[in-house]
Request: fold
Amino acid sequence: MALLTLIGRVLHNIHPEITYRLGSILFSLPLPPCRCETRWEVGGVKTCGPVGVAAGLDKTGAYARFLSFFCPGFLVVGSTLPRRRQGNAPPRVARVRPYSLVNAMGLNSPGIAEVVSRLAGLGYPVFISVAGFSAEDFFTQLIYLQRHYRPAAVEVNISSPTYRGLWRDLPRLVDVDLPIFIKIGPGTNMPLVVKAARRMGWGLVVTNTFPVEDRRISVGRGGLSGLLVYKYGVRMLGRIRGLVGPDTPIIYSGGLFTCSQLREVLKLANAAEALTSILYFTPFVLKLLNQCPDIV
Reply:
């Protein structure tokens, strides 16, 4: 752990756009997947452990094989879109102390067909995160997944700061035979989503990044992730668990770095996701978190 801390301090002093580009090369290495011993379950979905990779790290499916080497519980790929989208111009990422990031990638995606083509033959639990700018965007991708690639589950991302408040409500998701988790954030219409999740048997992902202004980003705003959002995320988790009751599966995402945090989270959630901690302390964090004592 001391070595990972040193690496995190070094990376803190390198411009995030540089580390992002270097990481894109490194994370594309096709390492052999970890031997997945199914030992966890969330909402009926079997995973390899309690902590997965959150959406946003592997938007294209190109990193999935590399990340699977580090024994995550599951991999969330995306968010995807029906068609290719360029996203925002650099700079899109800025660091915030302690161990946090602001990003505004702009929902860049090669399109869902290209993403899933890169996942063929990967024997690891994969969740696909889908996003969009209309109800049709979401529904089109869900139908595509149902017909051409059946992931372990689907995260429906209705809380990206890129929407700028456009998607506070749920798109049409009926008649889709896939395990669904709705990803919610600070701007989500909570009562509506909670009511729908309980009625339809969907799970929830709590929470997305927190919208903030930041002039270092090309568009002047982005989503805050990392250690700074943890206490607010856990507070939201407690609120949502109180609203949905004990039976709705919840995956927590937001500032997860340590085993003590994970133990706190799993008192209310059924699983968790990490992202910013991976960027600061390398993907070995995934193996450490999934081997936390008193968890498994």
The chain has ten helices and 14 strands. The domain at 2-290 is CATH 3.20.20.70 (TIM Barrel).
